[in-house]
Amino acid sequence: MKKTALITGVTGQDGYYLSKLLLSQNYQVVGLISPHRQPNLSKLGTMVDQIKLYTVDLRDAQGLLTAVEQLQPDEIYNLAAPSFVPDSWGDPLGTLDLITGTATRLLDAIRQVGLSTRFYQASSSEMFGDVTTSPQDEDTPFRPKNPYAAAKLHAHWTMVHHRQRYGLFACSGILYNHESPLRPPQFVTRKVALAAASIKLGLAQTLEMGNLEAKRDWGFAGDHVNAMWRMLQADQPEEYVIGTGELHSVRELIATAFDCVDLDWEKYIIVNTNLFRADEHFQLVANPSKAKNKLGWQPQVSFAQLLEDMVKTDLENLQSGKIAPIGK
């Protein structure tokens, strides 16, 4: 008998890769989608025909309770969140409700219906914030520095409290940056990949960038969603730090992407100090030892492979006219 997995945020990058994984594992995949997100269904490509869609406002507690009661999911993956961290400054209350509110309403629905549903909460390395030690693991103190991170931390502790008080199988992955060709261009990895492809094709001349010394732990989204799934197959619900354990600077990111198209990046990059982030984190890097030891999880795609795939995909899509070049 097929397991049923319910996903919020199904039209996002992680929702795409998670749906692809679960379908390959013979799950019935149900996407909970808010009415205003309907236009985003095209992001699922041909998978949209293999996924069951359930329209519900994620702010509607009764609507989510009804959904859980009707669908009786074996697993719930709560990925609902704003896609771009800096945007949380413009709507901190909306960010809090989408992230913490959705998690709380779903956990309460599981409890009220009395199911043994396994629940995954998408936590974030942003919760570590102003770190004093590197790398970070599951015992590192949280010191969030923006509304997105604070909301993620609230949802994280809400999940822990539901597990402790009600005995729910609820866990979270504290995920570091994870990328793919599906990233929107406002994310630095995709911005750089698209710029390299655009410049190679003569569709752009330069790229403005912020702090080239900023560093991140960048992994592949497909690898990270595999860790999510493994968490819900474990015997006990726990928290896991998920990342590559490698730090790369924006300078390295640019050099690697431009190398993919045989360009000297220094001829095309303009540093703009107005693009520097006030809450920049220089040493957010994962120690994923627990996930490797207890889940058997290991990242499969290297930093260089990830960038090559992103640049190659943008080259192909630019040449076919599927996307616009950088700056257009």
Spans with pLDDT under 50 lasting ≥5 residues? none
CATH class value of the largest domain: Alpha Beta
Number of helices: 9
Number of domains: 2
Biggest sheet, strands in spatial order? Answer: 3-2-1-4-5-6-11
Nearest-angstrom radius of gyration?
Answer: 20 Å
Portion of residues in beta strands equals: 15-25%
What is the assigned CATH homologous superfamily of the largest domain?
NAD(P)-binding Rossmann-like Domain
Q: Give the terminus-to-terminus CA distance.
A: 48 Å
Q: What's the helix-strand series?
A: EHEEHEHEHEEHEEEHEEHEHH
User: Mind summarizing the main beta sheet?
Assistant: 7 strands, parallel
The number of distinct β-strands equals 13
| Oligomeric state of shown chains | single chain
Mean pLDDT: 94
Estimated helix fraction: 25-40%
CATH architecture of the largest domain: 3-Layer(aba) Sandwich
What does this structure look like?
This protein is of the alpha/beta class and 328 residues long. It folds into two domains: 4-175, Rossmann fold; 183-217 and 247-284 and 302-320, UDP-galactose 4-epimerase, domain 1 (Alpha-Beta Complex). The protein is 38% helix and 16% strand. The chain is built from nine helices and 13 strands. The chain has helices at 13-24, 61-71, 92-113, 147-166, 188-200, 221-233, 250-259, 289-295, 303-320; strands at 4-8, 28-33, 52-55, 75-78, 118-124, 169-175, 178-179, 207-209, 215-216, 219-220, 239-242, 248-249, 269-271. The strands form four sheets. The chain has a seven-stranded parallel beta sheet with strand order 3-2-1-4-5-6-11, sandwiched between helices. α3 (92-113) links the parallel β4 (75-78) and β5 (118-124). α3 packs parallel to α4 (147-166) and α5 (188-200) packs across α9. The chain is globular and about 60 Å long. It starts with a strand and ends in an 8-residue tail after the last helix. The mean pLDDT is 94.
